[in-house]
Amino acid sequence: MAHVHPTHEDPVARALSEGVGGPMGRRGAGHRWWTPLRVVLLVTAVCFALGMVQKQSCYDDTWSDGQQRYSHMCYSDLPYLYTGRGMVERAWPYTDDDQVRDRYEVMEYPVGISYWAWGTAWVAQAADHLGLPDLAERAAQPAESLFGRPEVQSEIRWYVVVNAVGLGAVALLTVWFLSRTHRRRPWDAMAYAASPALALTALVNWDLLAVGLVAAATWAWSRDRPVLTGVLIGLGTATKLYPLFLLGGVLVICLRDKRLRDLVAVAAAAAAAWVVADLPAYLSGPEQWRVFWSFNSERGADLGSLWLVAQQAGDAAISAHTINVASWLFFGAWCLAVLVLGLRAPETPRLAQLGFLVVAGFLLVNKVYSPQYVLWLLPLAVLARPRWRDQLVWQAGEVLYFAAVWWYLGEYLAPAGGGDAGFYWLAIALRVACELYLVAIVVRDVLSPRHDPVRDGAYVAPPPRLARTG
């Protein structure tokens, strides 16, 4: 067969296949139309649709029930930011107009997300009203009252739908890139396509935009296109900061393989793409453009982070400055360790392996670890360690945390006698433990490439007793 079939090399896939006829046989030709790529695209669409259904109860009441969004775990930032950041009045996110700034806070996201959020607001209003509505009446109302207005509630529902359609398309593009990164391993993308983390968190925020660009960058690198890789990393960084860390993986690979020209090409293309993407925002409102950087610098320990556990369990306030210094020192040491690991490995590590390790280190000590941040790791994890057992162990911790954070915010985990919600701390610790498990497995693969399923020659034909014709 032209590609590696998971039932031949993955013990979990092989065991599960026994219920539907067993592993693919030597003479099995598959279906002429249902290629691996089409199958994973279909599974991605179904998984994403299930995620939309999971948000149905909140959609029905336009996210107005303050407790239901936590008890049903259907919270999303999208409806609240639509009115809270001026999208309801189609305000440019980086305008310095005094009237707009008096009414609305500045978008605290990088420019890629801000552009998308602003553009989809125009589409949602046009779809709801079959044309753009007159904003004069709502501009005369207090901004905090707009969320409850019937016409705005209708726009919010359209806003979520428009974003869901757009993000669904991004999810399909992402799985297309993942399935084509390793030419003989299109089925590796199934761990992304059928991911419970994708279904649960895809619509919490706009992180999926950066995820698609990261997947595209790994695909471009696998096709030996350094300039395109750099452009995609730059655009990803303009959408969410973490794609920048792929440059660390590129650095290790280029140092090992003496590809300094490629390293310069990737870095220069990334810088140019980032500047071009940020320029409209910076020129229209430099102070507003800086809000993303100041906001993240000034915030303290927040949800999901080990810093929050330390602060609550130790009953001591930890300043934002202390967290900034300590987390960056740890992350710097982590990056240095990844560099040494990559340079001393028996074979040149793959970009997905190095990228996964760097991003995981950043998340472990970040001052906030939101539930949707699992998406940052998902495409890198799928390519770095394409084994169902390891993916299930890691994502089990993420699903547990997803439930725990909403129940914590809804105060369902608060002890009857008062005090802090210790179960929430436990959920954070288990999430970190599952992530460290996958980190350890990837490190082992780097140090001992014979364990890496993706290495050339790793494919082993099924033994005679497993040979089937269908």
Automatic annotation (TrEMBL):
Going by the UniProt record, its keywords in alphabetical order are: Cell membrane, Membrane, Transferase, Transmembrane, Transmembrane helix
The signal peptide, as residue positions, is none
Residue ranges annotated as transmembrane are: 33-53, 156-178, 198-221, 227-255, 262-283, 325-344, 351-369, 392-409, 421-443
* Main location (coarse class): membrane
Q: Where is this region: Disordered?
A: 1-20
Biased composition range(s): Basic and acidic residues:
1-12
List the subcellular locations.
Cell membrane
Topology relative to the lipid bilayer, per the entry, is: Multi-pass membrane protein
Q: Which family does it belong to?
A: Belongs to the glycosyltransferase 87 family.
Know the name of this protein? Glycosyltransferase 87 family protein
